[in-house]
Design goal:
By secondary structure, the protein is of the alpha/beta class. The longest helix is centred in the middle third of the chain and has 19 residues. The two termini are 27 Å apart.
Length: 210
């Protein structure tokens, strides 16, 4: 059985001591400059809230990891686009979508592509997101991806994949070339950010096919 925790919110929609993470999250999620922390006793929480800071004490590695997760979620830019790929095999059948990070609303998607790789799909999803945001006039909205490789390809404006080009992969390579041309012909200000799965859980566009 999980230990009872108390959550102090010093800066959020409401401040105070909350008995559950769900209550705490409602106060800090998407709140700029949120400051909060969990405690294992009500006395510690009350002392921390009254002084405006956490007391110094030794914590285990697991406790530090849990606290880091709870605190760092306030770093997420919730008004953003998150992209992800659904891949059956790698190489395999690929599809992708982009969602609003906070609401999960699907903003755009591409149906199944016969043969491709996960990183190629991520690359296409990011570029699709950039083009979509440009059309919407949202030139500062960030895009989250969990693929460092795809993010580098976007920065380089070139896909460096070892996937052989043949009749089965021709379609995804055609899409990739079109995306590369778009990157070379357009400018954008939108930050492309790495989704920190180890702290925040699966990206909001995840297909759940792990």
């Amino acid at each position: 059985m999980a230990k009872k925790k108390y959550y102090v919110v010093w800066s959020g929609r409401k401040t105070g001591i909350f008995n559950t993470w769900a209550e705490c999250e409602r106060q800090v999620k998407g709140f700029q400059g949120a400051r909060f922390k969990s405690f294992e006793s009500k006395a510690e929480a009350e002392a921390a809230f009254s002084t405006g800071r956490a007391p110094t004490r030794k914590t285990s590695a697991n406790q530090k990891s849990s606290q880091a997760k709870e605190e760092s979620i306030s770093d997420v830019v919730w008004d953003s686009v998150s992209v992800d790929v659904g891949c059956r095999g790698n190489p395999g059948i690929v599809e992708y979508k982009g969602v609003h990070t906070q609401t999960g609303e699907i903003l755009f998607s591409h149906p199944e592509i016969h043969i491709g790789t996960n990183n190629m799909g991520e690359f296409l999803a990011i570029v699709h997101g950039l083009a979509w945001l440009k059309q919407q006039g949202k030139d500062e909205t960030p895009i989250y991806s969990d693929s460092k490789t795809a993010m580098k390809w976007v920065k380089d404006k070139r896909v460096n994949s070892s996937l052989k080009r043949d009749k089965d992969t021709e379609y995804i390579w055609t899409l990739v070339e079109r995306a590369e041309k778009w990157l070379k012909a357009n400018t954008y200000k939108n930050p492309i950010l790495k989704w920190r799965t180890e702290l925040w859980g699966e990206i909001k566009a995840d297909y759940g096919r792990k």
